[in-house]
Amino acid sequence: MIYGYLCEFSSATSLYQAAEKVRDAGFRRWDVHSPFPIHGMNEAMGVKRSILPWFVFFGGATGTLTAFTLQYFTQVALYPTIVQAKPTNIYTIPAFFPVMFELTILFSAFTTLFGCLALMGLPRLNHPLFTSQNFKKFSDDGFFISVERRDEKFDKEKTRAFLEEIGATNIELIEDEDPS
Amino acid sequence: MANGSTTADEATPTRMEREPLVLNNRSYHWITERICGVVEGRQPLIWWILFLPSVFLMSFLLFGLVYLISTGVGVWGNNHPVGWGWAITNFVFWIGIGHAGTLISAILFLTRQKWRTSINRASEAMTLFAVMCAGIFPAVHVGRFWQVWFLAPIPNANGIWQNFKSALLWDVFAVSTYFTVSVIFWYLGLVPDLATLRDRAKNGIQKFLYGLFALGWRGSNRHWNHYEMAYLLLAALSTPLVLSVHSVVSFDFATSVVPGWHTTIFPPYFVAGAIFGGFAMVLTLMIPARRIYNLYDLITPKHIDNMAKIICFTGSIVGYAYLMELFIAWYGGNKYEMAAFRNRIIDGYYPWAYWCMMFCNVVAPQVFWFKWCRHNIVVVMCVCMCVNIGMWFERFVIFVTSIAQDWLPGAWDMYHPTWVEQITFAGTFGLFLGLFLLFIRFLPVIAMSEVKGVLPQADPHYHEPESGGNENA
User: Looking at beta carbons, which residues of chain B come within 8 Å of A70?
Assistant: First the structure.
């Protein structure tokens, strides 16, 4: 089973220019692989801004509410205890703010981590691209573009010719081990 | 111009040349080789010379803690009136050191300070280890260590809950949140570099472990998109967090009525002090690491210069706070406050500690106004050592002098640390240094993907100097 093409570019600049061409050619299931995030690549690829902040907003709000509920019920509703002459009703809320703040941050941070992993589809144990020996360079100094077979515009010959035309080198056909 | 005509060249505004962040025009591959080389190669002899004594010191910590828990908290010198002696001093000392890491990763990230990339990884690791050292003290200080779970929001057998109106409980939440968020931030930053180590790994165990923790990272831009957003969010979350943690720590004191503790200046003063002490510790660790592993092109004089400036700035804030405390003690007209500060600086039990703190924290960093001092490694190391010592004394002065002599002269007493406290504190340095050395041994000490991203050729609109025309114009 074919996964798609993997091809290499020489620099961040050439990768950026190639990405613009792949985007303009109308491909959808393709990706760019680089050792570091390249400034402006999202626009060059036509990738939308990440929706992660929305998850984090609701994660943070959950944290605030959790802290408020925890403190209100234990200090006011369940077992009101007068300590340091502080009131045991809702007017004691300023004393709850530090914990509300901390749990907001804590829940937001967990949402950021797990939300980010979920959006990236990681962790995963393997990926067809890892069958390429050349691909190992992506984490060092290699710049790659991969185009998937599942893309509607994918064609074994035409896509290869297109990649050659935009200046790609080391074009490889990646075989997928499991048909999924 | 007084004389002569201006030529066209002089009239054209030119952009000031920026100092490069990585010296000698290094390539991506050079960075990978140099930083992975630290992990993959054999460790130099000096690593073992530092590591073995650290492990030995760590055994002091273990012994001190076992002895304390098995015997009782009376083996420490804490007694009436000083119920919090070295334990709280050491706790605040270590937690303060932990602040520089998150400051470098979060605040300098938000303010687009690109020079942070060479030092953020190591400082974040330092943060985690410092917070671990800090956490030991309050945990064992409770006396009945097996009941430390009382700190967690779980009701006891009588259905009584923790007192959420207490600054001490806020502190539990603040410190544990800080540690957790710092771990998340640090780990997320590590993922691309773990992938680099995975792709270079030779033997099976390395391949498996680095591969497992790299989470299958493949440098995809669709991933970088979410990843960068996550990093930005964590920076934005950590910035108020780092400011809140030491503020909450200062509430432990500021919300009490003890003269010398009951001051509103504490939160900003503690935060500035924490950043100050933390940067000094970052330099204390990074200057030797730079030399041992030959990282001169990555941690350049510019980095040291910048950190020295921050030390000078925060040291001045701390100095201002010291003077303002004295001024308010006099201007406020509260005779107990006045007496407390008089005891601190002139005729109390520990004025020598106050003046030691004053010299180390306020006077010593002022040499950093001079460029020559910021660029002289020996001077920088000496000042950092002064600050490390001075910041410990700052906490000792604030905490111990205030309660050793509080309201009634009849209740005054000296505080002496016992040998158990001394070996326990010495042991935390072993733990700190040992963990840091293990970190250097197994993980990339500099964030490779971030340093590569600030190289000039990483800009997609970069042109080679030969073909791109007048780069030096």
Answer: 153, 164
Separation in Å, CA of B450 to nearest CA in chain A: 7
User: CA separation (Å) from B33 to A137, B190, B197, B465?
Assistant: 12, 17, 10, 25
Which of B220, B458, B192, B224 shows the shortest CA–CA distance to A32? B220
First to last CA, chain B: 22
DSSP string, B205-238: HHHHHHHHHHTT---BHHHHHHHHHHHHHHHHHH
Residue B218 is nearest to which of A39, A75, A129, comparing CB atoms? Answer: A129
Nearest residue to B353 via CA among B405, B306, B400: B400
Secondary structure (DSSP) of A14-53: HHHHHHHHHHHTT--SEEEE-SSPPTTHHHHHTPPPP-HH
For tokens 């036509």, what's the residue?
A46
CB-CB under 8 Å, B28 with A35: yes
ipTM surpassing 0.95: no
Which chain B residues contact residue A83 at CB under 8 A? 163, 165-166
One digit per residue, the tens of pLDDT, for chain B of length 473 reads: 444 445 555 566 667 777 788 887 888 888 898 889 888 888 899 999 999 999 999 999 999 999 999 998 889 988 888 888 888 999 999 999 988 788 888 888 888 888 888 888 999 999 999 999 999 998 888 878 888 888 888 888 888 888 888 888 999 999 999 999 999 999 999 999 999 999 888 888 988 999 999 998 988 999 999 999 999 999 999 999 988 998 999 998 998 888 888 888 999 988 899 889 999 999 999 999 999 988 888 898 999 999 999 999 999 999 999 999 999 999 988 888 898 899 899 888 899 999 999 999 999 999 999 999 999 999 999 999 999 999 999 999 988 988 888 888 888 888 889 999 999 999 999 999 999 999 999 999 999 999 988 888 888 887 766 544 444 43
pTM: 0.90
Query: Residue B98 in contact with residue B278, Cβ under 8 Å?
Result: yes
In contact, B416 and B77? CB cutoff 8 Å: yes
Burial state string for B67-104 with b = 16 or more CB within 10 A and e = fewer than 16: ebeeeebebbbbeebbebbbbbbbbbbbbbbbbbbbbb
* Beta strand A169-175 pairing with A2-9: antiparallel
Neighboring chain A residues of B227 at a CB cutoff of 8 Å: 37, 116, 120
Cβ-defined contact of B165 to A84 (cutoff 8 Å) = yes
CA A84, CA B395: separation in Å to the nearest integer? 26
Q: Does A53 reach chain B within 8 Å, measured CB to CB?
A: yes
Domain ranges (residues) in chain A: 2-49+126-175, 56-120
Taking the C-alpha atoms of residue B424 and residue B4, their distance in angstroms, rounded to an integer, is 73
Hey, of B21, B26, B28, which one would you mutate to test binding to chain A, going by the most A CBs within 10 A of its CB? B28
Domains and CATH numbers, chain B: 31-144+165-454 (1.20.1630.10)
- As given in the structure block, the two tokens for residue B66 are 């076992």
Residue A42 to residue B221, Cβ atoms within 8 A: yes
* Residue of B160, B167, B227 with shortest CB distance to A79: B160
Angle (CA) B136-B138-B141 rounded to 5° is 100
